[in-house]
Amino acid sequence: MTATETPTSEGTRRITTAKAMAEAIALEMRNDPNVFVMGEDVGAYGGIFGSTTDLFAEFGADRVIDTPISETAFIGAGIGAATEGMRPVVELMFIDFYGVCMDQITNHMAKIHYESGGAVKVPMVLMAATGAGYSDAAQHSQSLWGTFAHLPGIKVVAPSNPYDAKGLMASAIRDDNPVLYLFHKGAQGLVWMAKNPRSIAHVPEEAYTVPIGEAAVAKEGSDVTIVTISLSVQHSLDVAEKLEGEGISVEVIDLRSLVPLDTETVLASVAKTGKLLVVDEDYKSYGMTGEIAAIVAETDPTMLSKPMVRLAVPDVPIPYARTMEYGILPTRDKIEAAVRELAS
Amino acid sequence: MTELNQLDLYKEMVRIRQFEARVLNEYHADKSPAWDIGAGLIPGEMHLSAGQEPAAVGVCAHLKKGDAITAPHRPHHFALSHGVDMNAMMAEIYGRTTGLCKGKGGHMHLFDPENHFSCSGIIAQGYPVACGHAMAFKRKGTDHVAVAVAGEGAANQGAFHESLNLAALWNLPVVFVIEDNDWAISVPRSASTANTSNADRAAGYGMPGVRVENNDVEAVFEAAGAAIDRARAGEGPSLLEIHTVRLWGHFEGDAQAYRGAELETLDERDPIPAYAAAIGLSDDQVAAIKAEADSEVDAAVRFALDSPVPTADDALLHVFA
Ligand SMILES: Cc1ncc(C[n+]2csc(CCOP(=O)(O)OP(=O)(O)O)c2C)c(N)n1
Ligand SMILES: [Mg+2]
């Protein structure tokens, strides 16, 4: 995808990422009676992070279903319904809660199509909140996309802005495969959480899709490539815009999707700049930063004119106190320092 | 069995309430005008226990040093009632190095090994761990008991059901406490649970189950005493469901629109003034007890504020022993 096709904030209808997600679900629900939503507090409450805002008012309790706190049962029920041709959109409130329902996710949702030799499809969306930055500590702040991307059979997407949130949700619902849709709490545009202005942007009213598996060149540049995803895209764009004034030209690649991964866009950018920073709010080891490094190394390590840099959570759980939490998160300051070092 | 002391029960409920009221106040004090959950001296999610004091106080009155509690995301009332140091707890809530967990855990992840107290933010996951405490007590030949606490919403989680069976099968000294406050965030019990009493579910696992109505601290005290004595005597686990009330939001910042007209009934359902009246305390006595609690809480806040903030590098410590 080229930079000219990336979403812009131009246009008059500016909505939050959360609203954009809910709008995509509503459009699909209107078109396809097989689409329904279930999860904890997705009904009248509208989802703890706003992902189902206003759906209950339009579609009622029959299609927007509040569940007991029984993730194994209702995610499993989503899988079963999907194998019957429904298109459930199931919310796991925080991705951190995967522990109580992981068997349904990885041994069932992810494997049924393969195990059945392609005979059984599981067209469901599992959406979950990710991310840190507001002192919710070790059990409510993880990103974990690397964990799921590691397990074969699940498409994994994570939008960074309202436009992509809407388009990726539409693609996820229409996809015949299970799609894990991870939305960052800090990019939802919630009124009760500090946010980057990039979390509210112009979104077309009509239905459209953003293809799963295509990265976006969120900003073109020529000196350093930042490859990143989710909220870190917003931070990286802030840094890129700041450094532009100083003559450091940063290209920001928003992966948008980890499975499938758009290696072509990544490699083209690295070939152009020769300098690579991978920014990830997930744990560092065995994750996205290592995967990107491996792809570059496997393709042509001589593309890099300097050793690449990985900026990710240094393999510790997310601590509560703000000083410690920001000590381990990939903040703007750390991104900026890494870019300066690479550019020097 | 411990003897019932009305004044002690009342004082402990007030102590908890004044703690929660102060946290409420301090939590919101520096989050305006644009309310931001991550801002201020106490950031993050905050689940307070106002209204649920009878559950903690009635149960903990029977516990002795060395007995264990595993609490959920709403832990303060059980922590305080079980003897967790108020200063260290407050400092943890403020994210200071002198906190119970050196600022790593925060209000949902309080660990106090001295008092065998812990909590978890993952629903129902304290139940299996309580079975483990009980297993250790039994294997070591002590008469200690473990108390597992969670809300009525948690009783629909697999871990709850697996733990009940395990405890009954192995005759473990555990008491499973369910605080039924009618709500799991915005989902009412009627929309989450087909069975109207968890006491019935206990029967299905082969253990006694009791449901205490009316948020009545003395009734909780009686029922908890029987269950804890039974566990201590080696006669096995029990389940105690307490019908209580959540006076405030699920978490702070929760506008609670989903509660509708029920919100107007909450003041009259507050168990603390009701108990003061029931045991005939005078206004002066009530004021004196409150003042005493406030001074303890004041000292805890001062302790927290005077304590150092962790450094960024402290985050790298304690991954492994
Ligand atoms: C496994 C898991 N699922 C969901 C949540 C999110 N969550 C936190 S508290 C809560 C409601 C709990 O209700 P209940 O057990 O009745 O306790 P209460 O909050 O009423 O004290 C939910 C759904 C969680 N923390 N863990
Ligand atoms: Mg409850």
Keywords summarizing the entry:
heterodimer, A: 344 residues, alpha/beta, Rossmann fold, seven-stranded mixed beta sheet, five-stranded mixed beta sheet, 12 helices, disordered N terminus, B: 321 residues, two-stranded antiparallel ribbon, 9 strands, 11% strand, globular, binds thiamine diphosphate, binds magnesium ion
Provide a descriptive summary of the structure in words.
The complex is a heterodimer of chains A (344) and B (321). The two termini of chain A are 29 Å apart. In chain A, strand 13 (276-283), helix 10 and strand 14 (309-313) form a beta-alpha-beta unit. In chain A, 35% of the residues lie in helices and 19% in strands. Residues 1-7 of chain A have low confidence and may be disordered. In chain A, the strands form three sheets. In chain A, strands 3-2-4-5-7-6-12 form a seven-stranded mixed sheet, with helices on both faces. In chain A, strands 9-11-10-13-14 form a five-stranded mixed sheet, with helices on both faces. In chain A, strands 1-8 form a two-stranded antiparallel sheet. Chain A has two domains: 14-202, Rossmann fold, CATH 3.40.50.970; 216-343, Rossmann fold (3-Layer(aba) Sandwich). Chain A has 344 residues and is of the alpha/beta class. Chain A has helices spanning 17-31, 55-59, 71-83, 102-109, 112-115, 145-150, 162-174, 231-244, 263-273, 288-299, 322-328, 332-343; strands at 14-16, 35-39, 64-66, 87-94, 125-130, 155-157, 179-184, 200-202, 216-219, 224-228, 250-254, 257-259, 276-283, 309-313. With 321 residues, chain B is α/β, with parallel strands linked by helices. Chain B has a single domain, classed as Rossmann fold (3-Layer(aba) Sandwich). Chain B has eleven helices and nine strands. In chain B, the strands form two sheets. A seven-stranded mixed sheet of chain B has the order 2-3-1-4-5-9-8, sandwiched between helices. Chain B has a two-stranded antiparallel sheet with strand order 6-7. In chain B, helix 2 (53-60) runs parallel beside helix 9. The longest helix of chain B is centred in the first third of the chain and has 24 residues, at 6-29. The radius of gyration of chain B is 19 Å and the shape is globular. The termini of chain B are far apart. The model of chain B has no long low-confidence stretch (mean pLDDT 97). Classes of the chains: A alpha/beta (344), B alpha/beta (321). Chains A and B meet through helix 11 of A and loops of B. The structure holds thiamine diphosphate and magnesium ion.
